[in-house]
Amino acid sequence: MTKSDNITDIIDHVLYSQEDIQAMCKRLGKQLTADYAGKNPLVVGVLKGAVFFMTDLVREMDVVMQNDFMDVSSYGDGFESSGKVRLDIDIQADVKGRDVLLVEDIVDTGHTLKFMEDLLTKRGAKSVKCCALLNKTARRVDNVTVDYYGAMVKNEFVVGYGLDYLNKYRNIPFIGVLKQEVIDSNSNK
Ligand SMILES: O=P(O)(O)OC[C@H]1O[C@H](OP(=O)(O)OP(=O)(O)O)[C@H](O)[C@@H]1O
Ligand code: HPA
Ligand SMILES: [Mg+2]
């Protein structure tokens, strides 16, 4: 690992500042307010990464809604998706006949979104849509639609604002590209 104790030293460069993220939340919140008016959507945050985005996004939505969380993960080893999506904590709400909006920090290979869409559709949700802060299409494997997103990102590993590497760096308030040397120093182990 890096010798530094300062988390910002592991960042190659800042991709989106706190102000950029705030503007994305405002724009998406406006759009979702219009699209979900009168639908009482069930807005589901995907733990753990989406927690930060979820709390900012729903406060920009002027819509009566219900909130729930699901804990799903597939990046145990950090950089590469294991391809196996694990459901650790399920939602409590019954989704039958509900308009469900999944909130994600990032859609990358699409494995996680596909898993959740299939599960919620099987349970009888009326609609399942996804709002992701970031949409990374370069490594997309599953055919999924990211209905709403803040920004497209290149094939770079990003951290901050909920996005982690080895469950670290989620608390960085902006989004940055992780230094390649951080990934390399861990992949040799
Ligand atoms: O499109 P995919 O390739 O499936 O990648 C996207 C998913 O991976 C990350 O979660 P992760 O599994 O790392 O769990 P975490 O949210 O707890 O970090 C991220 O928060 C998305 O849920
Ligand atoms: O670029 C990423 N950063 C953090 N977590 C992720 N999960 C999928 N892609 C990423
Ligand atoms: Mg993760």
Helix/strand layout:
Elements: E1 11-16, H1 18-36, E2 42-47, H2 51-58, E3 66-73, E4 86-89, E5 99-107, H3 111-122, E6 127-135, E7 148-152, E8 158-159, E9 175-178, H4 180-187
Parallel strand pairs: 2-3, 2-5, 5-6, 6-7
Antiparallel strand pairs: 1-9, 3-4, 8-9
Helix pairs in contact: 1-2
Bound molecules: 1-O-pyrophosphono-5-O-phosphono-alpha-D-ribofuranose (PRP), hypoxanthine and magnesium ion.
Residues 75, 106, 108, 157-159, 163-164 line the site of hypoxanthine.
State the gist of this model.
This protein has 189 residues and is of the alpha/beta class. 25% of the residues lie in helices and 28% in strands.
Largest sheet composition: 6 strands, mixed
Strand content: 25-35%
Shape: globular
Average pLDDT reading: 93
Number of strand elements: 9
Q: Number of helical segments?
A: 4
Low-confidence stretches: none
- Provide the spatial order of strands within the biggest beta sheet: 4-3-2-5-6-7
**Helix/strand order:** EHEHEEEHEEEEH
Small molecules in complex: 1-O-pyrophosphono-5-O-phosphono-alpha-D-ribofuranose, hypoxanthine, magnesium ion
| CA gyration radius, whole angstroms | 16 Å
Question: Fraction of residues in helices?
Answer: 10-25%
Structural class: alpha/beta
The N- to C-terminal Cα distance equals: 10 Å
